[in-house]
Amino acid sequence: MTAPIQELRSSRADGREPAVRLDAVSKVYGRELLALDRVTLSVDRGEFVCLLGASGCGKSTLLNLVAGLDRATAGQIDTQGGRIAMMFQEPALFPWLTVSANIELALRVTSSARSTTKKERRARAAELLETVHLGGLGAKRPHELSGGMRQRVALARALAQDADVLLMDEPFGALDAMTRDLLHDELERIWRERELSVLFVTHNVREAVRLGDRVVLLSSRPGTVIEEFPVTLQRPRRTDSGEVAELAAGITDRLREEVLRHARPARRPVGVGGEK
Ligand SMILES: Nc1ncnc2c1ncn2[C@@H]1O[C@H](COP(=O)(O)OP(=O)(O)OP(=O)(O)O)[C@@H](O)[C@H]1O
């Protein structure tokens, strides 16, 4: 189950370095709930990878493991020593702090920024708010902002952590379609400017095709990679374009097939690395 470290660290034949690599990662909750089963997956430096799968297939579990919030039961996860930031569906801002103070707090706990003064952190927070198109709103409290604006603040806070890898767990799932489209454009711009590596979980197949360099499909629980779809459509893409819809339809068919297969499960013993 354990892969040699050298192999995990080596660059790939196509010259791209992985920023995140999972090798045969399994996760069992409690005594017998197998959530992930030998997942092998990588995100290259500067790559945008979208993760799709039926509800409960272990997508959030996978992100939590990569973020180091939980431990894998088996397998290897290598993040190459990169700094990781995570964003969730809920922005989870401190309601009693101003927007600026929420970001300044993230700047304070980021090791490279520990030596900065309060004035410098405030200036940096203002810059980050400009980056997410919220310039001048630093004095507001989170409840004074719309859902989309709050998610922008959460994005600015993630950027404040100076991350190399951004893990995103359905960050736009609760937003209306128009706001989501705007945030797609902004995220794409920021991803390119900062050369981030992104692992983005969504239920929305079109969103995955709109954003991803690659869409990775997980099986129903226990989650394992069943198919990967490279997305070579020219950027910027539109969620409502024919090309995006066409590719999304193919992926949706595959996903539906998987969900139906799971609805008629063949009984098999639960266990890490059991025969399929
Ligand atoms: N802390 C936990 N303890 C026990 N079981 C858990 C825990 N977290 C998740 N699970 C279980 O592991 C499985 C995978 O959950 P997870 O939340 O990772 O799936 P998901 O694909 O993100 O789901 P969704 O798409 O609905 O958000 C589910 O069966 C869930 O009930």
UniProtKB/TrEMBL annotation:
Pfam families: ABC_tran (PF00005). Residues 20-245 form the ABC transporter domain. PROSITE patterns: ABC_TRANSPORTER_1, ABC_TRANSPORTER_2. SUPFAM superfamilies: P-loop containing nucleoside triphosphate hydrolases. InterPro entries: AAA+_ATPase (IPR003593), ABC_transporter-like_ATP-bd (IPR003439), ABC_transporter-like_CS (IPR017871), ABC_transporter_ATP-bind (IPR050166), P-loop_NTPase (IPR027417). One of its GO terms (molecular function) is ATP binding. Transmembrane segments: none annotated. Keywords: ATP-binding, Nucleotide-binding, Transport. PANTHER family: ALIPHATIC SULFONATES IMPORT ATP-BINDING PROTEIN SSUB, TAURINE IMPORT ATP-BINDING PROTEIN-RELATED. This is ABC transporter ATP-binding protein. It comes from Sphaerisporangium flaviroseum.
